[in-house]
Amino acid sequence: MKMEAAWIVKGIENVVKANPKRLESLLKDLKKDRELFEEIVISAYVDGLISLSKAAELLEVTRDELVEILKRKGIPLRVLSKEDVVAEAEAIKWF
Fold first, then answer.
1. How many CB atoms sit inside 10 A of residue 36's CB?
2. What is the number of structural domains in the chain?
3. pTM (two decimals)
4. Its family (predicted)?
């Protein structure tokens, strides 16, 4: 990321910390650009910030559909950590 844009990310982080309800509005706006939102979610998955199930939930696709999306993009699945296994088990409880 260029240094000129780093202030934007930090500014968003500060606004959301000060007023967490702003995150809902920001997410709503981000979801309008499906491609951008997908890139953000997949990036968070690749970085280990969210589980595969959480990424699928955010993108409103099934886990299997997300696996196919990742395969098409050449993105390997992460090896499941203990946290991922717990998150997957929690996601299954909702079904």
1. 11
2. 1
3. 0.72
4. Belongs to the UPF0175 family.
